[in-house]
Amino acid sequence: MDTAITVNEVRKHYGKVQALQGLNLTIERGEFFGLLGPNGAGKSTLINIIAGLVRADDGRVAVLGHDVVNDYRRARAELGVVPQELVFDPFFTVREVLRIQAGYFGLGKENEAWLDELIDALDLTDKADSNMRSLSGGMKRRVLIAQALVHQPKVLVLDEPTAGVDVELRQTLWQFVRRLHREGMTIVLTTHYLEEAELLCDRIAIIDHGVLIALDSKRALLGKVTGARSRLSVTLAAPLTAVPAALTEMLKQQDGARLEFHLDKHHDSIMAVLDALRAAGGEVVDLQTEEADLEDIFVQLTKRGRP
Amino acid sequence: MNLRGLNTLLYKELLRFYKVWLQTLLAPIITALLYFLVFAHALEEHVQVYDGVSYTAFLIPGLIMMSIIQNAFANSSSSLIQSKITGNIVFVLLSPLSYLEFYLAFLLAAMVRGIAVGIGVCVVAVAFVELPVHSVTVLLAFALLGSAVLGSLGIIAGIWAEKFDQLAGFQNFVVLPLSFLSGVFYSIHSLPPFWQGVSHFNPFFYMIDGFRYGFFGVSDVNPWRSLGVTAVSFAVLGAITLFLLKRGYKLRH
Questions:
Q1: What pLDDT, on the 0 to 100 scale, is given for residue A303?
Q2: Residue B54: which pLDDT band, with cuts at 50, 70 and 90?
């Protein structure tokens, strides 16, 4: 079985709102997969359906080939989910929480060594016997990750895991998740921090209004979208009296002698811009280029996707 | 059946109320004791319900059963509503536990708490008055079935309620009146005929009357009838609870 998650024609509505409109998606085993989309796009609904927390109106979802409704025991045994909200049970200590969570999956004392490893890897050793109420937000987030991993799932879903998390914890978290990925775990990440998805994910899906509007490798996504731009900032020795007509469409900003152009990577060349500027009497004293990033693609696609 | 999963959820539910035993065990025992002291002191000289049974002795089985059923309800309903509102119910819902395992764990924990409080009330009360035991089997049957009925009702209320005040409404407008008007403090034979008739529609009356039979061998109605009504109540509420859990009503949206 090479497919970690299969989402087939999944539909879900809440009242008159269509949260998911016949979504199809396949996530391969061993992938680091990014699921992006603006607020209300349907990401959390999809994750909750995969996790069995929400029931789809129609369609089928399987984790490692196990249907999440008809074969939910095996599907859930293969899946770990780190919820978006910082939820915790205030009655128990960290170790109790992890033991209880492992127990739900039918695991007992034989799993203690793994729990110790998790506690150590997530830097929770000093807090293992502390009540959950006494932990900081960052520590609670670490416990949530440990809880998702107590049964050593093959697929890990992280729903906005770094929302409100400080930089240090974010780094620790990504080091740990990268280690899990290197060891063969399939990772599915939703995040609002596009640079995280750009840095970590092999493939990215973008959802908007419950519809899949892009699904490709990060490189292909950055390269193939029509109008994928690079930015070119040029500083001239003196302001031009008039910008050449050939450049006016590309010019996005002019601040005295500083000009910013957005170039279509498929049609426009930096050299042509510089030549046109020189021909108009401009003397280039400095230039900077910046490649299009995922944010550009995201903004462009989600804007275009809107009715 | 994921027996280890079921045992773990049961253990978690037991640990949850044990960790706050002052509120979940001691407080209801003190409350029942206060009822006992006030009513026994006020009415001991004025009321005799059964021949050869003092009012104080008559009162104790009703108070024990009232404590059992109220605490069984409180345990499952409060645990569920807290888990739903704080969001930590997600940890159980993400696990491979079936709806039946979920039900059994919450039910058994509710029964344990109800019966633990009942035993506490009994131990304290017998220090004040001698209590005969007619049939241990009857006492056990009503304690187990009564706590199971209210444990199931607590799960239904916990699933249905979305806010604490909705649950408080359920407790104050359903559970409390039905338990107070069930013959805890009086025999229904002391009521006018109309209210005697109404009492026969209250399943709590049968639980308390049957439980009292276990002590004195005397009751307002035939104990087999009481056992039948209690068992049917459990079967109906158990079936409704399992139906709701299987559908994921208000849990898996």
A1: 66
A2: confident
Provide CB contacts within 8 A for A214, sequence distance 6+: A204, A205, A206, A221, A225, A297, A301
Q: Across all residues in chain B, what is the average pLDDT?
A: 90
Alpha-carbon span B142 to A85, nearest angstrom? 43
Residue A306's pLDDT band (cuts 50, 70, 90): very low
Domains of chain A, with CATH numbers?
3-222 (3.40.50.300), 229-291 (3.30.70.1560)
Q: What is the ipTM of this complex?
A: 0.86
Residue A76 near chain B (CB below 8 Å) = yes
* B65 touches B184 (CB < 8 A): yes
Contact list in A for residue B5 (CB cut-off 8 A) is: 103-106
Distance from C-alpha of B215 to C-alpha of B217, rounded to nearest angstrom: 6
| pLDDT, tens digit, 9 for 90 and up, residues A192-201 | 777 778 788 8
pLDDT at A307: 40
Q: Is A77 on the interface with B (CB under 8 A)?
A: yes
**Which chain A residues touch B12 with a CB distance below 8 Å?**
92, 100, 103
Residues of chain A contacting residue B252, judged by C-beta atoms under 8 Å apart? 52-55
Q: Minimal CA–CA distance to A187: which of A80, A112, A270, A305?
A: A80
Nearest alpha carbon to residue B68 among B232, B199, B225, B182:
B182
Cβ–Cβ contact B94 with A under 8 A: yes
Pairs across A and B, CB distance < 8 A: 78
Compute the distance between CA of residue B210 and CA of residue B65 in angstroms, rounded to an integer.
10
Residue A224 binned pLDDT confidence (cut-offs 50, 70, 90) = low
Cβ within 8 Å of B, A 5-64: 51-55
Alpha carbon separation from A62 to A26, A200, A294 (Å, rounded): 10, 24, 29
Tell me, what DSSP letter sits at residue B130?
-
**B247: closest chain A residue by CA:** A55
How is residue A37 written in tokens?
């989309």
Q: What is residue A185's predicted lDDT score, i.e. its pLDDT? A: 93
- Reported pTM: 0.83
Residue identified by tokens 């426009």 is A268
Q: Output the six-digit token pair for A3.
A: 């497919």
